Amino acid sequence: MQHSVIFLMQKFLYKNEDLSKHTLKEKLFIKKLMKLLVNFVKYGNPTPKNTDNVLGSLKWELFNETLKVLNFGRTIKMITLPEEKRMRFWDKLKCDFFDNDL
């Protein structure tokens, strides 16, 4: 999936490529992903505005103790990291049984 998204993004960047074989959902996903990347490069924030004609009301939240991440599924949204509980377990185990140098 990752390789196909990169390939589609490259095609989207080059206006002379034929995008007619892609669905509207694919084109919209590519447009949203490109907007997030361009915003991040330009502003240091993928969603610098409260509302956007491409991203809607999507708001990127800084990574902190709540472990929220940007999820690229059927919709692009912020979610709590699904592996948070397991990650905290391994972090605690490491702290309890190993030196902090690891």
UniProtKB/TrEMBL annotation:
Residues 5-90 form the Carboxylesterase type B domain. Keywords: Glycoprotein. It holds the Pfam family COesterase. This is Carboxylesterase type B domain-containing protein. It comes from Parnassius mnemosyne.
